[in-house]
Design brief:
heterodimer, A: 68% helix, B: mainly alpha, 8 helices
Chain lengths: 327, 183
């Protein structure tokens, strides 16, 4: 590996990291504005034109807030938990192909890697709940345990349909395989299961049981303040962006789309389509949050095990059957 | 093995050892579980170095991502932050016998590696690595499981099914009175 390649690699990582940080900061603003409009309110519009400086003001406020550590907390685990959440969320992007030639790494087991890292992210929530030494976060941590395990299975099984279609675990090759037809058409069942399980996996409404504020104050991050709270907040939004990008790559054809900027700028068109699709999925997430009421806990578990998992299994059987007998 | 791989290996091996030792020695069960997770993670990195990415990913996905979450789920019910377990529970001569056992295990391991020719045949390393990569690809793994190792694979699934049935029976509500059930 030559020096230029190493420099380009580091530059790519920095670019992706910076863009992701910025996107996540502004996603908080976008979400607040959209939810406000959904609910016939105005939303944060005072700081800067259209409220555009709001995320920066929030960041500065969170940085200068006082740190409070509960007396009964397990200090080391208490500090470790937000770090795990954030690192796991950021690590996933390393294997996502953004355009045909712009990606950090093309790993031949990328899907398994993504599932593995996202399952590590669960630990942030679980450990935060326990290590706070407080009863509401503990209940939240236990809920998160059960929920993540149930929905991770459905998520993994939904992805297997795509793997069967593409015949590879590499995300880059999966996108290449979608040149003629995007997988959400033959894999419509898998796509629906993936989106629902993705919402549950990122702890978003209507599946936000771990931080359900009417019962659990603020759930696992009740006892967290200042920058450590911000890290959970950031982690959640990066996770949303991750699910958006994964849905794009696995089901919506990744970078594929008409070359709208002419034949010379195919890369730019690819980037445009990737971002547009990702934003569409993220908007769907915000829409869901503003529309649907929260599940009850037993409903959530029953839905995961009795509806989503059988549907995902059915999808695998159908896909495998078609692949074995028709093609 | 080049320099970067060597550095990564040393870091991963150190983490694996620290994780294993910490898991046995820490006085708080949650810390034990966390050390075990660190150990699994280090093992996954070592699998990667041995060019077995599928095993590495499955190691993290299954053991760290699922099994240890359930371990923690149970431990959380009983242990609070800051709780220490200070009691000593030991058998007579425990330290002595465990020391002997460790020595025996290590000698068997080293002897096995020596007999397998790991310490001598440096010229075979390259071809062995190629072979490993071929063996550990998802396709090879899948077809091996469903052809050559089909019987052990199916027997394992039978074993897991029995365990699952046991769990279901244990967790099921006992029906004492039908009227009570309706209420």
């Amino acid at each position: 590996m030559s020096v230029i390649e190493v420099v380009w690699m580091v530059a790519k990582i920095l670019i992706v990291f910076a863009v992701l940080l910025l996107a996540m900061a502004y996603l908080t603003l976008v979400e607040r504005r959209f939810v406000a409009w959904f609910q016939w309110r105005v939303g944060p519009n005072r700081v800067g034109p259209l409220g555009l400086i709001q995320p920066i003001a929030d960041g500065v406020k969170l940085l200068f807030k006082q740190e409070l550590i509960p007396a009964k907390a397990d200090k080391f685990v208490y500090f470790l938990a937000p770090a795990i959440t954030l690192i796991a969320a950021f690590a996933i992007i390393s294997v996502i192909p953004i355009t045909e030639h712009f990606y950090i790494a093309d790993v031949n087991v990328a899907i398994l890697l993504v599932l593995a890292i996202s399952s590590l992210g669960t630990y942030g929530i679980i450990l935060a709940g326990w290590s706070s030494g407080s009863k509401y976060p503990l209940v939240s941590g236990l809920r998160a345990c059960a929920q993540m395990i149930s929905y991770e299975l459905a998520l993994g099984f939904a992805v297997i349909g795509v793997v069967l279609m593409a015949g590879t675990f590499s995300l880059h090759e999966i996108v290449l395989g979608q040149e003629r037809i995007w997988y959400f058409i033959p894999q419509i069942l898998g796509f629906v299961v993936f989106l629902i399980a993705g919402v549950a996996e990122t702890n978003r409404a209507p599946f936000d049981m771990p931080e359900c504020e009417n019962e659990l104050v603020a759930g696992y991050h009740t006892e967290y303040s200042a920058m450590k709270f911000a890290m959970f907040y950031l982690g959640e939004y990066v996770a949303i962006i991750n699910v958006g990008m994964l849905a794009t790559v696995l089901f919506l054809g990744g970078w594929h789309g008409p070359a709208i900027f002419g034949a010379g700028l195919v890369g730019l068109a690819n980037l445009f389509w990737f971002l547009l699709k990702t934003c569409a999925v993220i908007f769907f997430f915000i829409w869901l949050r503003a529309t649907l009421p929260r599940f009850r806990y037993d409903q959530l578990m029953r839905f995961g095990w009795m509806v989503l998992l059988p549907l995902a299994l059915l999808n695998i059987i159908i896909t495998a059957g078609i692949k074995a007998f028709i093609q | 093995m080049n320099v970067i791989e060597l550095i990564v290996f040393i870091a991963a091996a150190a983490l694996a050892l620290i994780g294993a030792a910490g898991m046995v020695m820490s006085r708080n069960p949650v810390h034990s579980a966390l050390f075990l997770i660190a150990n699994f993670f280090a093992l996954a990195v070592i699998f990667l170095l041995l060019s077995a990415p599928v095993l590495a990913a499955l190691q993290v996905l299954v053991y760290t991502g699922a099994i240890m979450v359930l371990f923690l789920f149970i431990i959380f019910f009983f242990i609070q932050p800051g709780q220490k377990h200070a009691y000593v529970y030991s058998l007579p001569w425990q330290t002595f016998f465990s020391g002997i056992l460790v020595i025996v295990l290590i000698s068997v391991l080293v002897l096995g590696l020596y007999m397998g020719g790991v310490f001598t045949a440096e010229e075979h390393v390259q071809s062995a690595a190629m072979k490993v990569e071929e063996l550990t690809s998802p396709q090879a793994l899948g077809s091996a499981l469903f052809s050559r190792y089909l019987l052990p694979f199916e027997l394992t699934s039978l074993l897991l099914l029995a365990a699952m049935l046991g769990a279901v029976v244990l967790a099921r509500k006992e029906k004492r009175d039908d009227r009570e059930e309706k209420n």
